[in-house]
Each structure stands twice: as C-alpha cells, then as structure tokens.
UniProtKB/TrEMBL annotation, chain A:
Protein name (Swiss-Prot/TrEMBL): PH domain-containing protein
Keyword Glycoprotein applies: no
Family named by the database record: Belongs to the kindlin family.
InterPro entries (alphabetical): Band_41_domain (IPR019749), FERM_2 (IPR035963), FERM_central (IPR019748), Kindlin/fermitin (IPR037843), Kindlin_2_N (IPR040790), PH-like_dom_sf (IPR011993), PH_domain (IPR001849), PH_Kindlin/fermitin (IPR037837)
Any one of the GO BP annotations: leukocyte cell-cell adhesion
TrEMBL record, chain B:
Annotated localization: Cell membrane; Cytoplasm, Cytoskeleton
Gene it is expressed from: APBB1IP
Family: Belongs to the MRL family.
Species of the source: Astatotilapia calliptera (Eastern happy)
Biased amino acid composition, Low complexity: 37-51, 351-370
InterPro entries, per database record: GRB/APBB1IP (IPR039664), PH-like_dom_sf (IPR011993), PH_APBB1IP (IPR039665), PH_domain (IPR001849), RA_dom (IPR000159), Ubiquitin-like_domsf (IPR029071)
Presence of the UniProt keyword Membrane in the record: yes
Pfam family for this entry, one: RA_2
Protein name according to UniProt: Amyloid beta A4 precursor protein-binding family B member 1-interacting protein
Length: 648, 564
C-alpha cells in the first residue's frame, strides 16, 4: 500500500513548534502511528496518557487497533497528539476554586466520576459541570482573584468505590501532607457566612423567566461528549454542581464532602433567591447557617466516628463513674444529680386589658419546669404568690442590648387561652440564665438537663452579636460575631437592620441550637427540599400550537407548565406516567407521550433541547437507582436515557 | 439511641427532683395513696434486678468487686423504685362505639399505640388500622384522633378538672387514608376519574416519593378558606397555602409568591381538631370546619384559630396535610406499625380453629390490606370460646352496634348514655373467682370469655371445660378484679335481646352518671377514683406463647412475600 505523509502537532513540543510529519500507510493502525510519532520526537517521557485528537472532526482517535483507513483519515487531516488528562480550574459549590487534572477525552459523565472520586464525593451521577458566564468586571479586581488550591499532583486512580477506604477519615491522597489535609478540610467543612456585600453583588434572578434564562447563561455541559468536543481548553474554568436534585443514600459517615457541598449549594440558592421561601423559612435558614458555621468552626472534625455513638459512650461512661464513684452513697449520688439552682429578684409584668400597672419586683425561683415567685427572698419558704408552669409555653426574647432592655416574653397556655407574661432581667448574665431556663422549661426539661449550660452560652453569643452590630461596622468583625445580613438574602437587608434581624433569627435559633453539625446540615437540606419549588429547573419553551412563550419546570419527579402571565402552574405531568419521549433533532423539538393518550410537544427557547432532554432522561435514570441496588453505576443506561441519537 | 439517652436524662432529672422530696418529707406528695404505690412498686424488684449490669467482664470478680457490684445494684434498684414511684398514671374511661366503656390505666410512658393494643385486647375488635383513640371537647365542639406515637397522659393532663371531655375508641377511616390513597392528597388537582383509577404501583411510588426521601413532602395545598375573625362573629375568605413550615395566607393585593406570604400559624405548639356542628355554634358557612389550638386551651379563646372549608373533601385534605407537616415521618411509621398489628391479628385469628368467619364485621378493611379476608375480631389474648360448635362466635363490638336496636353510638351525651355493660347483669355471675387476694396482682387485661351472641340466657357462663383448654391462662377474673360482682340492675332485666358487647368492666360503685363525667382523673384527684385496677405485671401474651410464634411466622411470611 502506498505510503503518504501525515503531519501531527505534538503538544509537548510547544505551541509554536512545527507539526511532526511521519510517513504512514492507510492500513497502519493508530497504535502504530503513535509509536512512530514518539520515536520521531525523541523525547523520553511517559506517553501513556497521550492520544490523538482529530481537529476537523472534533474527535479523539482512541481505538488504537483501528486503522487510519477505518477512521477515514487522509493526508489533509489535522491531528494533535496530546495528553488526555489536563489541568482545569474547578469552582465548587462552596466558592472554592481547585486546580486539578481531569480527563478531556472521555464523556463528561466519566470526567465527573473521576473528579468526584478524587474529591471523595459519592454518587457522581448527581453532579455535572457547568460552563460559567464570562465575568466581564473581572479586570477591575484582578488582584482579588480567589486563591486556587492545587490538586494536580494527585495521582489518578481508577475504578469506582461506593465506600472509599478512608485513612484518618479522608481518602489516602489527602492524608499525605498537611497542605492536602487543609484542602480536604476546606472541602468537607462549610465555609463561614459570606459578607453581605458579596451576596448583594451576585446576580439574583427576579422572576421565573430570569431563572429560566440561567440555563442559557450557565450552560450544563453535555454528559455524553468529552470536554474537548465542547470547546473546553486546558486551564479553563468550570463549575462542579449538583445537577439532579435526587440525593440518594446520604451517609454522613462517608459523605462529608458531598454533604457539605450540597449544603453550600443549597445555602447559595437560598441567599441568591434561586428558590423562593417565606420570611419565616428564611429566618430558620439563617439560624441554621449561623449554627452550622459556629459548630463547624468549634467542633473538632472526627469524621470517621459516629457522633451519636460517642454521645452514648460518654454518657454510659459517666454513668459508670457515678455508679462506681469512691465511697459514693446513694444520697451522695442524688446530691450530685441535683439541678443547679436558679433564684433571683426579677420584675414581672402581666399585661391585662384595663390595667396599666408596670413591672413589679419579686423573688423568683426556678423549679422543675416551673417558675414560682414570692414577695421577697425571706418569704420564699412558704407558698408562692404564683407558680407558672412553663411546659408547652412560647418563649420569645425582647432584647435591646444598647438600651439595656432584657425582656423575656412568655405566652403560657391555660385552659382559657394563652396568658402573656413579661419577665424583666437586669443584665445580660441574668437574662441568659433565665432565658435558657425558660426555653428548657417550655420543652418540658429541667435545669438539670445537660443542655442548660450550652443554651446559656448560645444566648450570650447571640447577645454579643447584637452588641457588635450596633457598635462597630461589620467589615472586620471577628468570627464570633456574624453580621446577620450574611445569613439572609439581600431582600431582607433592605427590609431589616441587623439588630432587627437578630431577635428574629434568635427566635428561630432556639429550636436548632442543640443540633450536632451533621444534624444541622441535614435539617437545612430537609427544609430546603420541602420547599414547594425545590429541584425545579426552568426553561422557556414554546408549546406546539401555542403562540406565546411559556416556562417548563423540570422537577425530580414531574414536569410542570407555567403560564408566564400569571405565574401559575397550569399543568403537571409525572414521569411515571410517561410512555416515551422523542427528540426531533432537526427542528429541535421534544415530543412526550404520557399514559392516557396525552401528547405534548415543545421547542426550547432559552436552552438547547439537548439540555432539557438530558434533564428528563437523567431524572428517570436517578429514579431507577433505588430499585437496582447494585453498587456499580449503570453508565450505559444513563447514556441511553440522556444521550439522544448522538450517543452510542 | 436517642431514646436511651432521653431515658438516662430522665432518670437523672427524676432523681434530682426526688431528692427534694427526700429532704422535705413533709407529705409533699399527697397524691400517692398507699394502695397505688404498693401496687406500683411490687413489680419493681424483679424488673430492676433483671436490669442489673452484668458483672465486670474478664477474670473472676474479687470480693470487693462483688461488693461494689452489689452496691451498684442496690443503687440502681433504688433509682428504679424512685423512678417508678414518680410515674404518673391515669385511670381513663374509654367510650366504645356502641356506647359502652372500658376503664384502663395509662401511665405516662405509654404511647397511644400501646393503649390501642390494650384496647384491642379488651374489645375483640378487628384491629384494623382505622382504630383510633380520640378526644372530644364538648364545650368547644372539637374532636381529634391522637396520633399513635403521641403520649396519651400529656394531653389528658391538660383537661380541666370539671372537663366534659371524653376519650373515645373508634374507627376513623381518615386516619391513614393518605397511605391508602395518596393520590387524593398529593395529586388532588387531578380529575376524579384519574384519582379513582390510580394503579397500586403508582400509589406506592407516591408514598415513596413523599415519605421515604430525605425529607417529608407536604401536599401542595392552596385554596380559599373561611377564617373566623378574632372576637367577631363573621367569617371572611382568605387564600391560604400549606407549607412544611406552617400555614400562610396571601395578603390582599399581593402575589402568591413565597416572599409575600404572611405566616398564619406554625405547627410547633398547636394541634389540629375537627370542629363539630359549627354552623349553628359559630354561624360558620359550612359544617366542615377545623381548628388549630394549643392542646392546653380548653375554653373559648382568641388564641384558637377557626377555619371553615367548602366541603368535607377539602377539610380532610387540609387536616391531613397539616398532620403530615406537623408529624412528618412519624405518621408513616405509625401506619406501618398499625398495618403489622392488623395483619398479625388477622393471622392469629385465622389460625384459631374454633373461630368462624360468619360474623365478619369490618367493612373498613380496605383494599390496601394484602391479607386474606377479615377475620373474626378476636384479640390474641382471648381464651378460645366455648368448644361447642353450634354456638356462634362471640360478637364483635361492630356486630353489636349494627344489630342492637337502640344504641346509636352517640358520644357526647353523658346523661342518656346507654349502659349496655349492665346487660351483663342478667347473666349468671362470672365463674367464682379464686380468693380475691391472690388475684389482686393478676393482670386486668385478661378478659373473661366473651358471652355468645344469642341465646345466652340459656347458657351458662364459660363452661368449666374452659380452664382445661388453655392451661396458661388463669380463670378469667372479673374485670377489674378488685370490684365485687355488680349488683343486678332491675331496669335492664327486660332488655335481654340486644347482644351484649364484649365483656365490659362492671360499673364502678358510684352511680353511672357520676362516673362518666370526669372520665379522666389526674393523680391529684385520685381520692375520688374507684380503686385502680392492679398494674399489669407482664406484657400479656397469647395463650402459651402461641401468639408470639404466630406473629413471628406472620412476619416471616410477609417478608417473604415482600421479597418476591
């Protein structure tokens, strides 16, 4: 067979180097071409990761046994010889940018699997890569460019492990050096709340249409094609995000990074109003964020251990100590377990309709779950003037540190209704103790409860927060005092001052203050997932036969049709009623058939119909996982469901 | 794990409070009548000793260790005793559907599920999942079924002393309707035929989606409801929305977007109640009303929120939605437990050879139950009925209800309350109990065999052979044991015809009307209460452990079935 010249650009020779020309025959297989190339360059290095890229056809020549003829390559082909793995800048949900080596030759689905394996994120099928919009204002604050954490040295491993073996609670490659450990901590521990200005600066969608346009602005990459085919170059920046909101099999023992990153993504979705919530929900999200950042910073990370187990162990241990204590008699034992005493002079006020009496001072005593008060300390042995049982009551703070106002508002249930009572404390210390007592009492707990001291602490730290907010600016506030504006979306920055926000968040905080870090993260995710609009991705579409644009919402279990003029959900279709769906790639139209002869068809306005197709197929794939129960990912099925005709 | 922790905490707390009583023994606990404490504390030693920690592992214990161990045991025993003595108990009168009633002791550690199980044992009902313990408040015209995981003593303690409130044992199909037909709640916007023709696998999927994920999904409810204005007599319409975090409404002139919603109520401190006959009481637009209030509020108050729906369907949608939002996963757990109970009882009953199916009473066993046809409603603890094959099986309460002429299951009428228990008086007295002293400790949950449905006049009470049939059961003592056999009541001699309900407790010594009113007494008012039935000493099991084995077998079968 006749020999002809094939010129190949070898990336390792430098960008300006002329292509290397080798003499080949059409029946030469790709492996042979590579061999010739390597011999010609005379560079001694590991070429095992290198492969040929055919530029005009935008494809990799990965089958080394195929001949040039089979690939259809002639002398005019422009080939590039380069490594399949290249560094990439990767933005994570928590805002950190990593630099790591990823695969440019496999479908994005596999690239994401590789990334997730490296970062110790299980269930990579739930994530994907986004191409961020061009940031134009970047020139202005170039010196503020975020720090990039380098992971390019991490050796690439293969194989999927659903339960990766952990060393010291982290994958072995993170346990190598302190620097790597620090990066792992960055991945697995939630970030402190962002400054309010940072939130305010980010783009926030104002309407469903805006949200639909996000899918045009930030483009999800095609899972069935490789990075290079989608125009991603070495060192480009991509975002790694959870794409399918169908979190499956979350296990805090193995999922430290996954849980944290999902939380961060949820937190930003709330702060930037990607998903709508009510004011009450926002306050609860704020309280949880505050709690999570506080606990994350204080709690030493024992990632491999189960916290509940620890609690039980220590409880049993202390019980044992108490039981076996040297010379402990039963009465000693009882003595030790007595609740801390809480007595003091406080002022009380009971607002009634026709009286205008002010606060009166009495001697107060906290007992079990009740507060009793007496005329004076001396008379406290006798019958109290009144005893208030706090069980089931509502406790609300009414505090202004600057004005030295420390009120506890109690709504005490009685057969006739709720009785309103105010307790006035003199100072912070007194307030924190009594407030903590009232909160425990309202939950039916006594002061002997182990949470009493931590409750006092959390109240005091919240008071401290109010103090710093009112005095100094928040810019250089220490970690102890978080600006409450960092915890809510900018809408509430306008509506409330930080010191107005503090009591509201504090109010929500009392219900979550005792949660462990994992529980708090899970609670945040649960409330997020319970929001009505959770998991919806929006696309502007034009339904067949309709003359106006409408919005299609794609949820984990259904499609919804939203009328733009009213903003109402007009129609819902569930995936489990879906019989089949087709894409007409020529006219870019999707047609879906549901049970009961329901047919819909639409073309996509703000996103490519491949993206919509992949979303729907992806969610259907996600729903098959629980049934299969197998540990390995059925990649073929994923591509079958999401790939369209181009795949396979 | 959390439970254990709570337990430990509770022990510590109890101790802490207990010591105060020790310090000041000046009769600070007047509500401990001697009989009760003696009853209560008797079972403790055995329970405590069985709980004692095992000796330190490893080599033979030295004498010191043994001593230390004994000391520890003693301390633990003391702790247990203290704990037990502190446990609050209520004597609760539970009204049955047919108007009769059962009296039972509920302690504060028991949840409604356990009380329901007790009632199943006492009532020979069919144990289906719809059975509920409910409370009614005649003054506010409210009623609510307790959730199975709820503690019963707590809400009952909130009743006022002169309360007319009642505890009922009845079937409430709406209790777990959401798990039988989830589409009616989660896809309520769809048209009726789609909902009716929903396939079982789709129903299952809906339950999976909404109850088995990381978070519980609340039905997406939105609609116009009538709200009773505070203090005013008028009702005004508002657009309400249910969310996991509470009920919200859309203020006038605002959009429905989440950020504009105003919070109407959150669920932490309120329960949801059905309102009865509000059209006449409050001039409500319809009678389909529900109410949100703090459980402790018992009288008219501005803190009660009254809502009115256009139809019963909407009302059930909202009440169920609120329950899902408030109780979340517990609701589904409760349902699963209830289903197991129901199918277990089906199984045990089927396997009893002497029972027959002719009196199947339960129209409420829904298609969702996979088990075979509803069985005669025998509780597993019952001794087999008299071995005479000609006899019809004992009538279930349901049968009694349908057959008996004059006893409509009215609940709120303490005065003309039909006293079918007294029918029993026509019967010859129950088999002579052994010396009552011995039986003071006998568990009150064992029932005398149910009287046959018809022709009971001619029959002697449980035939003597009965004792021989089932060795493990003591001869059924009268219930409660401590009471003397009830005196015959002349008024009811004539009414021999209505089939008697399951053996009821003999009326307490006081006049029936008087005992009905304070159906529940807190421990503080125990002085007035008839002697409490003795405490259960052991969980009652089926005769000779057969029930246990059967239920295990049943579980295994179910599992196998599920695997296929």
């Amino acid at each position: 067979m006749a020999a002809w010249d094939l010129s190949v650009t070898v990336e390792d020779l430098g960008l300006d180097a002329p292509p290397v020309t080798i003499s080949v025959a059409s029946d030469l297989h790709i492996g042979g071409v590579i061999l010739k190339l390597v011999e010609k360059t005379q560079i001694k290095q590991d070429w095992s990761d290198h492969a040929l890229w055919w530029e005009q056809k935008q494809r990799w020549l990965l089958r080394t046994a195929w001949t040039l003829e089979k690939y259809g390559i002639h002398a005019d082909a422009k080939l590039v010889f380069m490594p399949q793995h290249k560094p990439l800048r990767l933005g994570l949900p928590n805002g950190i940018t990593l630099r790591l080596r990823v695969c440019f030759s496999n479908p994005v689905f596999q690239t994401v699997m590789g990334i997730c394996r490296m970062l110790n994120i299980r269930h990579p099928e739930e994530l994907s890569l986004l191409r961020p919009i061009e940031e134009k204002k970047k020139k202005k604050d170039k010196n503020l460019a975020p720090e990039i954490y380098d992971l390019t040295e991490v050796p690439l491993s293969s194989g999927t492990l659903s339960r990766p073996c952990l060393y010291n609670g982290m994958p072995a490659h993170f346990a190598d050096s302190p620097e790597m450990e620090a990066i792992y901590k960055m991945l697995s521990v939630s970030q402190p709340p962002p400054a309010p200005e940072v939130i305010a600066k980010q783009y926030r969608p104002a309407s469903v249409v805006d949200k639909a346009h996000i899918n045009g602005r930030y483009v999800w990459l095609d899972s069935s094609r490789c990075l290079l085919q989608q125009g991603i170059q070495e060192s480009d920046k991509l975002w790694l995000r959870f794409k399918y909101y169908a979190t499956y099999d979350m296990d805090s023992k193995y999922d430290a990074v996954r849980l944290t990153q999902l939380y961060e993504q949820a937190r930003w979705a709330i702060l930037l109003e990607d998903i709508d919530c009510t004011e009450e929900e926002m306050m609860l999200f704020g309280a949880l964020q505050y709690h999570i950042s506080k606990v994350a910073q204080s709690e030493p990370q024992i990632m491999s251990n189960n916290p509940a187990m620890d609690d039980l162990d220590s409880a049993l241990q202390s019980l044992e100590v108490k039981m076996e204590g040297e010379g402990s008699s039963a009465s000693d034992l009882l003595e030790n377990m007595t609740a801390p005493e809480l007595t003091d002079y406080l002022k009380i006020f009971r607002p009634k309709r026709l009286t205008l009496k002010g606060y009166k001072q009495y001697w107060f005593k906290f007992q079990d779950t009740s507060i009793s008060y007496f005329k004076s300390k001396e008379e406290s042995i006798g019958e109290p003037i009144q005893m208030i049982n706090l069980k089931g009551c509502e406790v609300a703070p009414d505090v202004n540190v600057a004005a030295q106002k420390f009120l506890i508002r109690l709504l005490i249930p009685a057969p006739e209704g709720m009785n309103e009572v105010y307790l006035r404390c003199e100072n912070e210390q007194q307030y924190a103790q009594w407030m903590a007592g009232c909160r425990l009492g309202s939950k039916g707990k006594t002061l002997a409860d182990s949470s009493f001291q931590s409750e006092i602490q959390s109240i005091r730290s919240f008071l401290a927060m109010q103090k710093t907010n009112s005095s100094s600016s928040s810019a250089n506030a220490s970690e102890e005092s978080i600006n409450t504006h960092s915890l809510v979306s900018p809408r509430y920055h306008k509506k409330y001052k930080p010191k107005q926000l503090t009591p509201r968040i504090l109010d929500a905080y009392q219900n979550v203050a005792q949660l462990s870090l994992t529980d708090a993260l899970m609670r945040f995710l649960q409330i997020w997932q319970a929001l009505p609009d959770f998991g919806l991705a929006y696309v502007v579409v034009r339904f067949k036969g309709s003359r106006k644009d409408e919005v299609l919402g794609i949820a984990p279990n259904r499609l919804i049709r939203i009328d733009l003029s009213v903003g109402d959900v007009v129609k819902t279709w569930r995936y489990n009623n879906m019989k089949q769906w087709n894409v007409n790639w020529d006219i870019r139209q999707m047609a879906i058939e549901f049970e009961g002869n329901v047919n819909i068809a639409f073309s996509c306005v703000t996103a490519d119909c491949k993206i919509v197709h992949e979303f729907i197929g992806g969610y259907i794939f996600m729903s098959t996982r629980s049934r299969e129960k197998s540990e390995t990912l059925n990649e073929e099925l994923f591509h079958k469901l999401t790939g369209g005709h181009e795949a396979l | 794990m959390a439970d254990l922790m709570a337990d430990l905490n509770a022990t510590e707390e109890k101790l802490a409070t207990e010591i105060e009583c020790l310090k000041a023994p000046s009769a600070s606990q007047p509500d401990f009548p001697p009989p009760r404490s003696s009853n209560v504390s008797t079972p403790v030693p055995s329970a405590a000793s069985s709980l004692a920690p095992p000796p330190p592992s490893g080599a033979k214990p030295t004498t010191e260790e043994i001593e230390a161990q004994m000391k520890a045991d003693k301390i633990k025993l003391a702790l247990e005793k203290l704990k037990e003595a502190k446990v609050k108990k209520l004597v609760v009168k539970v009204l049955m559907n047919d108007g009769s009633s059962k009296t039972l002791m509920v302690d504060e550690r028991q949840n409604v599920r356990e009380v329901l199980d007790n009632m199943f044992e006492k009532s020979h009902c069919d144990c289906n999942v719809n059975w509920s313990i409910c409370e009614t408040n005649p003054e506010l015209q409210l009623e609510r079924a307790f959730e199975d995981h709820e503690n019963l003593v707590d809400p009952l303690s909130a009743w006022t002393r002169d309360s007319e409130n009642k505890v009922l044992f009845q079937e409430r199909p709406e209790k777990y309707e959401v798990f039988k037909n989830p589409q009616n709640f989660y896809l309520w916007k769809k048209d009726k035929t789609t909902l009716r023709d929903m396939k079982d696998k789709d129903k299952e999927l809906l339950i999976q989606e909404n109850f088995c994920g990381t978070s519980i999904i609340v039905p997406d409810l939105e609609g116009v409801l009538h709200l009773r204005e505070d203090g005013k007599k008028s009702w005004k319409q508002r657009l309400f929305q249910l969310r996991a975090s509470g009920i919200y409404y859309v203020p006038k002139g605002k959009t429905k977007s989440s950020r504009d919603l105003v919070c109407f109520v959150q669920f932490d401190n309120v329960n949801v109640y059905y309102g009865k006959d509000f059209k006449s009481k409050y001039k409500a637009p319809t009678d389909f009303c529900f109410v949100l209030k703090h459980p402790q509020i018992q009288k008219e108050s501005q803190y009660i929120k009254y809502l009115c729906c256009d139809d019963i369907w909407t009302m059930n949608l909202w009440v169920t939605g609120i329950r899902i939002a408030k109780y979340g996963a517990s609701l589904y757990e409760n349902f699963k437990t209830a289903e197991i109970k129901a199918s277990n009882s089906v199984w045990t009953n089927r396997s009893t050879p002497s029972s027959s199916n002719q009196s199947t009473p339960s129209p409420t066993v829904k298609g969702s139950m996979t088990s075979p046809p509803p069985p005669p409603p025998l509780a597993e603890v019952l001794p087999p009925p008299p071995p005479d094959p000609v006899l019809p099986p004992p009538p279930p309460p349901m049968a009694a209800k349908t057959a008996s002429k004059p006893t409509p299951p009215k609940r709120n009428q303490p005065n003309n309350f039909p006293p079918p228990p007294l029918d029993m008086d026509n019967l010859p007295p129950p088999p002579p109990p052994p010396p009552t002293d011995d039986h003071l400790e006998a568990p009150p949950d064992f029932l005398p065999p149910p009287p046959p449905a018809t022709g009971f006049n001619s029959l002697p009470p449980p035939p003597p052979s009965f004792g021989g049939v089932d060795h493990s059961l003591p001869p059924p003592p009268p219930d409660p044991v401590s009471l003397p056999p009830p005196p015959p009541d002349p008024v009811f001699v004539a009414s021999g015809a209505p089939p008697p309900p399951p053996p009821p407790p003999p009326p307490p010594p006081a006049a029936p009307v008087a005992t009905l009113r304070p159906a529940v007494r807190t421990s503080g008012s125990l002085k007035k209460v008839p002697p409490a039935p003795p405490k259960r000493t052991a969980p009652t099991q089926g005769g000779g452990g057969g029930g246990d084995f059967m239920s295990e077998l049943m579980l295994a079968m179910r599992k196998k079935h599920a695997d296929q």
